[in-house]
Structures are given as C-alpha cells and as structure tokens.
Records
---
Amino acid sequence: MDTQPRLIASIADLRSNLCAARKAGKRIGLVPTMGALHEGHLSLVRQSQAQCDVTVVSIYVNPSQFGPREDLAKYPRTLKSDVEALAEQCADIVFVPSDNEMYPAGYGTWVEPGSVAQPLEGQCRSGHFRGVATVVLKLFEIVRPDAAYFGQKDFQQALVIRSMVRDLNMPVEIVVCPIVREPDGLALSSRNRYLSPAARRRALVLWSSLQQAEMLVAQGERSAEKIVAKMRDTILTAADARIDYIALVDPETLKPVLDLTGRTLAALAVTIENTRLIDNCLLEPPK
Ligand code: PAF
C-alpha cells in the first residue's frame, strides 16, 4: 500500500517535523539524492527503512558539485515520478529545498575535503567533492540523521564523506550499499537515460572490463599494469569510448596499487556518446 510521503521544502519545516521523532528517541535515516531516482536509490531507501524509524530522502540537484562544462542544466529533474516511487517505498519525508534555501545570497562557507578527494574523480572534476562535501554536511546539519545511506557506485564519494564525518567528529553512521546493476551488468545511474540504445549497448564495456579484471585476478595475475592494459583494450572495443581513468587503487587511501597483494579497488570513468559513466568493483586476490 502506498503512503504519500510528506513533501517539505523549507529547512525550518523539516526541523520541526523531525523534532517530535527525535524527542521520542526514534532513529532517523537520511538518503541524500539528486532525484531521477532508480532502483539503486530505492535500495538505499529500503536499507534505511530496515534500520531506522523515520526515513528522509532529500532531492536536490546541488549546483556546487557541477563544473562549468558539466550537465547541471540538463540534469534530469523528475520530481513527480520520484515522489511516486518514494510513496511506493513508504518513505516518510521528501526534502526538496530550493537553491535559495540551500545557498542564500551571501553564502560563503565551504568544506575542503582531504586527500581521498584528490585522485580519480577529483582529478577530472575540479571542485566536485568540495561541492558534495559541503552540501552533504549541510544536509547532515539540517536533518541530523543517525545514519546516512550512499551507494558504492560512487565509491570515492562515500570515502570522502566517511573521512569528513571522521575528521569533523560528526555523530552519523555512514552506510554504503552495494551497486545495483541491470540484468546485463550496466550499473544503474541517473545519467544512463542520456544514452541512445546503441550507446547503452556499447556502455557494457565498463562492466565487461571490470569482470575481466576479476577473472585475471582469479587466474593469478597480480600486475596492475597488465590488468589495466587488458581493461583498456576491452573498453576501447567501444568505438567512441573516451577513457578518463582506469585505476587500481587501495580502497582506503585511493593510492595506486602496483602489485595486487590485498583488496584493491578497480575504478573507471569512461565517456560514451557524450555521457560520462563511472563504475567500480573490489578485487580480492585469494590469500
Ligand atoms: O550522489 C549524489 O546523488 C550526490 O552527489 C549527493 C550525495 C546527493 C550530494 O549532492
């Protein structure tokens, strides 16, 4: 049975709505999103509901995490269908602040994330994690959740947020949930909808190259250079693929790994038909 979530746009209203729940000792879960919801987001909502008494989903396309040449203007905004999907999941509150509510005139405070924000996405998207960390810290201050839910697809983002929470002693548990994939392996992303059917088929090279890395490791290959070279060949079977990075890194520090002796993150960012896609998996060389 669907229950309409409360749709709240103002910070003051949200705070007063959560006040009674907090006083009653209820556990509050936050799922921060930029909308255009898919099964990946909904899996976070379900996880929050399983662990919390009240689930707040924020929908806010945060301008400060987009670079000047990125897709802020065309980022999909699908509030009606998002709210319908959240009603089906029985989410309690949907927080939909305006830009003015989040960044009023005169706004001037920013979070400068640490070293895990530098490589990979940080290298390709200057200022991106500063915008993400700032808006997530603001959402944490506004909602004051006991737990907040993020997807492993944005592995580096989750790490940046974990580091921020640790460094700033924030009393919130960060829960990272597994990547949700289409049956053919494509990781769900709000940006997949930009892909034409043919480009969507080509985009499967991301998943194929990650599977190839897993297979090579299972066969005993330990050289990062060799694994990356094979992954690159696979990606480049898609004629228009532009590779930003294919990286094998330590999952805690994101520093490059040369020989795979322990758990290693394989992460990649590839543009297919003008759509930039990211994906990753953890490689576990057997002991
Ligand atoms: O992952 C996202 O959708 C965004 O980066 C987030 C965490 C909602 C911050 O705007």
---
Amino acid sequence: MKLFIDSADIDEITQAYSYGVIDGITTNPSLIKQAVLHQKSKSIEGDLQSGDIKILDMKSYLDSLFVVAKQTPISLEVRGGTADEMYAQARALYSKFKTKFNCVVIKIPINSQIEEFSDVDEMQGLQVIRRLSHEGIPTNVTLIFSPEQALLAAKAGATYVSPFVGREDDFIRSNAGLTYDKNAYFEPEENLSDNGIESGLELVRDIVTIFTQHGFQTQVLAASLRNPRQVREAALVGAHVATVPLSVIKAMVRHPKTMEGMVAFTKDFVSEYDELFK
Ligand code: E4P
C-alpha cells in the first residue's frame, strides 16, 4: 500500500518526505487555506523585523511542494462548477506544472452540485473525469461516500477514488445523535449505517471488493484517515493508497511497549559493546 501525506503545508511535507516512506501528496482547498494562513503568519512574524509583508505566490509555493515530492503524485483540486468550467480549471492546473513536474493529479468532486452552482447538473463531474482520462490526465475523484459513486467514477476512467473514512464515520455517528471525538476510532455498531455502510472502513472495503471483482484498474485511495488503526484497516481491506496527516504518520510509530523496551535496552548497553560503535 502506498502512503501519501494529506497536507499542503511545506514544512510538514518536507518533514514527512524526510522519513523515506511517503509516496505522494493530497491537498484539498481547506488544507491549502490552512497552509496559506500558516505561511502568512510566518511571514508576518518575519516582517516584524523586516517591515515587508509578502502575499503568497501560489504557483511558486506549489513549485516548492513539487520539488519536495520529487515526481511523486500531487493531487490538486478544481473549484467545481460545470463540466466545461472544471475541465478548463483542470487543464490550467495541469499545464502550469506539467513541463517541470509531470506528476499532477486532478482532484474532481464526484458531484459538484451545491447551491452556489445550482444550475449545475449532478453528472458534470463524471463527464470531466471521462474527458481528462481520454487525454491521459490522471484524476482523483473526491468526496466519495458510497460504493455506487466509486463505481461510476471508475467507469468514467478515474485513476483514483477517494472514500472519506473519517467523515463517513462522522455522518453515521451524528445521524445517530452520538457525541464523538472526530479523531477516535469508530467501532461499528449494530443497526447504525449509512444506507447499509456501517463505517468509513466498510466503505473502503466494499469499493475494493467491487473493483477487484469487476477488474477495474482505478485505485482506492483511503482518505480522511485520522488515527493509526484506520490506516491499518485500510491496508487490511486492500486500499491501494492511504493518505494521512503528519500527526497520524507520527502516531503510527508509537507504542508504549516500544518505549519501555528502549528504556531497558538503553540502560543495559555494556561498554564492551559500545566499543563497536567507534
Ligand atoms: C484528502 O484528500 C481529503 O480531502 C482529506 O483526507 C479529508 O480529511 P478530513 O475529513 O479529515 O478533513
């Protein structure tokens, strides 16, 4: 299974790539916004000395992410709208980076219909995926909350589909009136489901099963993972990729018994053995 970092923050991304286990990056508009605010606050802190407030140049900023990513895939999202609008946004994004960094993946919502785009027909996302896939432009179909949506995306030629594990768990728990910690692992409960899907991880598992049974090449990218156990289960059910925030990558390496063992081993090193390190 590949491991992507779910972030747009250059400091986090650089740190994550330095561990040698990261295979790509996923961004979304909210992550980009956080990164912009972070960069601006850093720049304002600096400007307390220099007196020169900089506006973030997004193209240069993303160029620096691409440099760190070293040709591993980076998902960049389109704003939405009609198929023609999303297609134009996708082409603009793709061509801005493709000559230097041929690893842009265009993130398309499975259904771009919202109040702001109320005249937009719900099937526009699929049409863009099909168009981009015919042109050989990789797509990551986002905001997947049902196997049916994933099936349509795969039929349209998506490179990846992104089922949102944590948000699906949020949906099931909030519909049941439960209070919950968004980052906590959700143990599926009898009689709680979203149209038969009992958890975000079951959503991932069903999509993997459908794609395997029917020979789809589309990869399942488990997204909205918020704790290590969800990453483990995404791997167990056969997700091709898991995208995780830096905090989760770090939590994956921790175990109290590992720390306890380290304390004992560190204490037990004899000086004769230490000689070997010289
Ligand atoms: C990644 O592609 C998704 O946008 C992201 O994983 C969503 O995560 P969240 O539900 O924790 O915001």
---
Amino acid sequence: MSEAEELGNWTRSHFSAEIPKKDGSSVTLMGWIRAIRKVGKLTFLQLADREGFVQVIFKGVSPQIQKKLDILQRESVIAVKGKVKINKTAPNGVEIIPSELKILNLAETPLPLEVVTQKTPADLPTRLNSRFMDLRKPEIAAIFRIKDMVVTAAREYWDKNKYIEIHSPKLMSAPSESGSNVFEVKYFKNTAYLAQSPQFYKQIMMAAGFDRVYEIAPIFRAEKHHTYRHVTEFTSMDFEISFISGLQDIMTEVENLIVYIYKHIQKNAKTELKILGKKITPPSTPFPRVTMTEAFKMIGEKFNDNDLSSDQEKLFSEACKKKFNHEFVFLTEFPWSTRPFYHMKKDATTTCSADLLYNGLEIATLAQREHRFKILMAQLKDKNMSPKALEYYLNSFKHGSPPHGGAGLGLDRIVMKMLGLENIREAVLFPRDPERLWP
Ligand code: ATP
Ligand code: MG
C-alpha cells in the first residue's frame, strides 16, 4: 500500500474550526494526526490543522481503510471525506464520520519532539532544532499569528497616515551604525557590510522629499554576547517623518502607533490570546516621560552623563512601576556621549532623543536628526569619524534636507514583551545568535 497517496481532485472544504454545526453536512478535511486511540473496533483520530482539531471516528470500515488505519502513525498527513455529527461533548461540538481516507504522507517514528506538551516540556534548544514540529503546537503558533497581526496593524497605521513604504539595501559599503557589531561579507573583490539599520537611507528619503516613510525589514548585528534580548538578525520597524517641530512629534507618532497595534490585537487576536492565557489593554496616552537626570534621581544615584547600566535599568523600571503604573515609559534627553553623531543636540551635552521602554526593556530609539550640514559635519568630527565612507549620506544634507526625525522599533522585542515571553528567541521563528545559524 502507498504511504503517500495523491490528493487528486480533493480540495479542503473547511478548516476544523469552520466545520458547519449541522448533522449530515459533507466535509473534506486535511491535516495532521495529533492522536490515535483504538477502542475495540473503533479508531479515534484527532485531526489537527492550523485552526484547531476535530475527532474523526472510524467504525465498521472497509478492509481497504482498515489497512490504512493499521499503519498510521501520529503526525502523519491525511485527508478525510465524511459527514458531520453533532456531539455536544466533543471539543468543538462536532465529530466526523468518515467515508474515505487518504494518507498523504506517513510520519516516521519516533518523533523528534512531542507536539502535545508533556509533563516535562523540551528545552528551548531542542525545540528550536525541530522548530517545524514545535510550531505545530497551538501555543507556539499563536505567538507568530500575533506577530503577523502586529505587522499588519503597523502597516495599516502607516498607510492610513500617508506614509510610503520603502525597501533600503541591506548590503552596505560602510557600517550603518557603530563599527563594533557589524557583519562583514565577501563582496566580489571587496568587503561589504550587512545593514545594522536603515537609518541613513530613510534620512536620504527625507531629502528626496518623500516626507513620511516606513520600512519593516531584517537587520543584522554581530552581538557577541548571549542575552535574553539580543539576536544577530531581527526585524526592525522603522519610520522617519519630515517637517517636525521637535522630538515631541516623534514621541506622539510612536504612542499612536503602539495604541493602534494594541487595539488591533485586542480586536483580532482573541483566539490566540486565549490559547496563551494573556489579556492586553491598550495603554493610556501620553506615556510617562522621564529625563535621564530624573531617572538617576529616581534610583537614588548621581547622573554623570552615562547610560543606565542593565542593573540600573532594572532598578529604574521598578521605580517606574511604582510611580506611573504604566507599561511604557519614554526615557528622554540622552547624553551626547552615548548617542550617534546624527542625533540633534539640545545643548552641549544633551540630545533630542529618547528610548521607549516596555516593561523595563528598550524597544525603540527615537530622535530628531541633525539636518543642518555644517553642524552635522562638526558632530561627525566630534565623534572622531571620517566623512569619506559616508559621503553618499552626507551629500543629501547639502542640497535641501528638511527638519526630520524618526524611530526604530524592534518587532521581536515588542512581541516578546506583549506576550510576556522570557526570551526573544521565543518570538523569532528561526533565531540567529553567535551559536545558532541553524535551522
Ligand atoms: P540595546 O541597547 O538593547 O542593545 P540598541 O540601542 O543597540 O539596543 P538600537 O540601535 O536603538 O538598539 O535599535 C533599535 C531597536 O532595535 C532597539 O530599541 C531594539 O528594540 C531593537 N534591537 C536592537 N538590537 C537588537 C538585537 N540584537 N536583537 C533584537 N532586537 C534588537
Ligand atoms: Mg537604542
């Protein structure tokens, strides 16, 4: 007997969650066998697809079907034709009495991973090694369906607000941020660098007169350290807008975007949130704003133009929880010493920039950019950088760059924090880190 029959002219009539609750309806279902149970002459199959599962009950079948049932293994792919039978005690109120069965692909045993979580769940590396199997778990699939909705919501927000989506190059002739965590790649006879951000290009698009742009794309950082919040390839949601009066405009735009995403998820991800046992409520606006000087005061330490260390960040987020009872906080007025040359300066030591913290973790950096060529060149010099490699970027400031600013938001970190995941790798389909370039 064939272990991989052809589908022929069969097409799926319903996903399991869409089966009509009407006795005798004809259905054609396709999916994976999540469980097999044999009781006397009865065989119960749990047929799972991406929307849920349904019980298929074989009773008094033809010898031909019986032969197939005898060789079936869990997680094999099958197609079934049959009739609906209402059963109030069944998980979704119906079961299927089949008339035909096709084995589309028999699964090998043993399975590399159990789909139905056992008493001792597999550890993350084991799960990631067999990610295709891990993703069959409804509670894991739910994370990525919510991630899809976050992106859909962001696109929708930006489209409604007259942004233009752009696609900037990911192969660069010079690093796009600091040179310390850039990946080098062989580029014919030369060296190219993988983009660490779309920063320079979205700013060039302001000089090009596009006014409001956004990009959702992978970026790369050679982060050597193992942390719960860094991967080497992640998805950045970037935007940049022109004719701003100040950083305030960027903060408002970020707030509106986050609230829009929350409302979209609250409305559209009811099933997924239920599977994950999570509730979300759109945050109130404006989000609290704390200057760096105030932040150090709040943790009882003296501010000396430093960034918060990760320990101080923890203390600060505790203090914020008490003071504001808000999931989001803008940390503002970052010292010039900790920011890149293209951030606008507020005064000699401070920049017009902010970080957005989400339950204590940075999820975005925002800034008004320096758009005045001469000042930008002076700031570059101040950071001991050479203009040569950045000529293509700097040229765009010579011939009409409007006042502008923007933000880069980490999609994977947003999903991680929204769902209370402990490791960013849980929010990335196939994460990349110093030890993992596979699968
Ligand atoms: P961190 O200080 O946490 O390393 P960063 O300040 O270097 O972050 P930015 O250059 O401001 O990061 O990048 C914009 C956003 O991209 C960050 O706010 C964060 O949400 C996300 N991000 C940055 N680095 C990573 C990474 N290695 N993995 C996942 N997300 C990241
Ligand atoms: Mg940052």
---
Amino acid sequence: MPFTSYQMQAQGKCNGTLEVPGDKSISHRAIMLASLAQGVSEVKGFLPSTDCEATLAAFQSMSVEVERVSATCLRIHGVGLHGLQLPKNDLDMGNSGTAMRLMAGVLCGQKFASVLTGDESLSARPMQRIQEPLLKMQADISMSSNGTPPLVINKLNNNASQLVGINYQLPVASAQVKSCLLLAGLYAQGETCIEEKAQTRDHTERMLQSFAYPIKIEQQENSKNICIQGGNALIAANITIPADISSAAFFIVGALISKAGKLELKNIGINPTRNGVIEILRLMGADIELKNEKMFGVEPVADVVVRSSKLKGIQIPTHLISNAIDEFPIIFIAAACANGVTELSDAEELRVKESDRIHNMAVGLSAVGIEVREKADGIKITGGRIKGGEVDSGGDHRVAMSFAIASVASEQAITILNTENVATSFPEFVASAKQVGLEFC
Ligand code: S3P
C-alpha cells in the first residue's frame, strides 16, 4: 500500500449535515452470521472498508456466495452452521482484531484446519486472551510463542469432534473475546456461559437474536451473564446497519472545537454499550442533542446534533471506558482543547489496539504543542493551544483521523504521516471531512 499523508490547513470548519458510513463492528458480525445462517440475508448499510472486505473475502473463500447489490448492500447466501468449506489459502484478516478474534471462534468449530494471518499491526496483537478459553472448550488452536498471530487452528482433537461448552468469566473487558466464545458456543456441546464484569458492546448478542438464535442474558447487580446453547440454527435475516458512532465521533469533536459550528449527523448507532463517547463529552460540557431516536432492527439510532462548545477538563469515569474504548484518540483531542486537565486511568487496553494509542497520542499531542503526561494505564492532558506541526499516526487509523480533526482548532497547519490505514474503517474520510469544511492543502 502506498505511504500517504494528510496536510491539514489550520482553522477548518466542521458544520452542516453529514452521513457517516456503516458501523464496523456490526458489519463484521452481519457477514459472519449471515454466512452461517440458513437462507439468503440482505445486509444494508454495510461498511465497505478494507477490514470488513477482508472478513467478506474470508467467507467467500470458504464457499459463501455473496451478491454485491451495491458497495453497501449485500445479499449473502448462507451455508448453515456446518456448510463452510476448506479455504484454499490462509485467511488474511488485514488490520482487524475483531475479524481475527471472532473468526477464530467460528473456525475452531469446523471440521477443517485453517490459518489466520494479519498485517504488521495485527501480527503484534495479543491472542492468548482467546486461546486460553478456546482451549478450555477443547479447540485446537496455537500461535507464535509470544502469543501473537498467525493463529493455527486444527480440526477438533476430542473424540466427539465437537467443542465443549464452558462457564467463563472474562478477565479483560473485551467484546471481541466475548463474541469469539459466543460464536464458538454455536458449535459446542452443551451451554457456553460468559460472565462480564464491565459491560462491553453487545452487538453479537443482539444480532444472534436477529438471526433467531436463542440466547439467555441475565443482568446481575455487578455483572452480566450471557449463555448460548450449541446446536440450534441461525435463520437468514435482513439487517440494516446503523452509521458508525466511532466514525461520527471525529466529526462530533470537530464541531465541538470549531469556532461556531453546528453539525447534524444522521442515523448514528447509539447502542448504550457504545455511546460512552457522548457521555464523556457531555461531562466535558459538550452540547450534543439526540433527535429522531428509532430502531434499525435490534439497534437504536438517532440523529446527533452538535454545537460548538466550551469544554472543560475532567477525570474520565472508569465505568465509561469500555463503552468508549475506540474513541479515546479523538476524546484526547477534545481534552487538548478543553479548559483544565483531563485525566484517564485504568485504560491500559489502549496500548494493545491497532497501535499503542496512549503512546502515539501522547507523542502526537506534544508534537503539536500540548502539555501531556503519559501514564502506564492512561494519560494526563492539560488543555491549551494546539500550535500545529507534524505527527506520525503509527499506522493507526483512529490516531490519523484524530489529528486531522485537531486542525480545526490549530493555529498552524498539521501534517499527519502514515494515513493509509484510514481505509480500514473510514474509506471516505477525506471526502466527508471536506464536505463539512475541513481543508486539506
Ligand atoms: C470491537 C471490540 C473492541 C474494539 C474494537 C471492536 C468489536 O475491542 O476496540 O475496535 O467489534 O467487538 P476489544 O473487544 O478488544 O476491547
């Protein structure tokens, strides 16, 4: 992939009306469940990003037929839970932790062996978190000695040639681990129950229900228990995917830090396990209004109206971290423009995302003139004037887009290096940014 960069002019605008593309997490899950369902599913609002296309290509290489009605509309001919065929090659999951970890759950239940690979960033991400519970389910899954991809999955190694259900308490707050185990649970004998202490995104649970798969969810006082019984069938469904709140978040912050912006974003997913970014920004003083709330199937959406606001620094509440886990790079830009200090703790997970987001953001913020202290489990940012300068995204799509948005409030131009991975989640980012008034040199 060619090395690309953005050169952002200072003081761009961020206003008007914008539609951002479909949700990445939900797009991955729609492909997976539709492929494993009985019958033909129509998926609208699909995100045609390189990450989601990699998931689609993986299922196509396992004999799932996909009709491309348009870039964002797919008709997926499900093969049923046991209809996938041996792929000819290793499955390349590109940059996507979600694709690799969820696919691992599916592939551990198959009667053929497979190998999952990824790009340089994905090849450095921790996979023991799925290996440990999958081994308990009697899967045969191995990886490099330091716990990173490629993942090598062999045919089941027990006599029953079936995975075995487990009770598992998630040691890290991770929807990817939870979803991996729920998908493996489709192939397990008996029940697989997962207990989560911190609430993580629940798109898999919701979408299993859309595909008529029984799932039991019990909310206890300090935890949630999610149980699935193997051996039932997924039935084809028509899915409309909400616009991605993680992509919307860039423009929400852009409007907040602009001089006099009012921005309206259409049909944004506001699932309560994903809307931590709105809650955190409101605590910082953001003027964010939700209008026209409705459901896209099992997922709530709303139009989000944002007005330029005077932000103040806050201690970010721990209980909101997992519901805003992908939005911290852009929240840090909001913090850089706020009055006072913003502090985040208990967020070491940010070090094992597409890049070490605590480090890359700290280095970038300081390069553009913001006082910042990196902590082992978070960051402390003193709001001030963003001067401008050159930032390396470290190949992280969300770091790249965050600094592009920072230019709305910068005194001088900002150059962002290494922006090619923006295509993994938001291929139309530059066009959308130009539409609302950001200026690229
Ligand atoms: C995702 C879960 C989160 C998030 C990722 C998408 C998902 O990861 O950071 O971008 O779709 O399940 P973790 O489960 O590792 O926290």
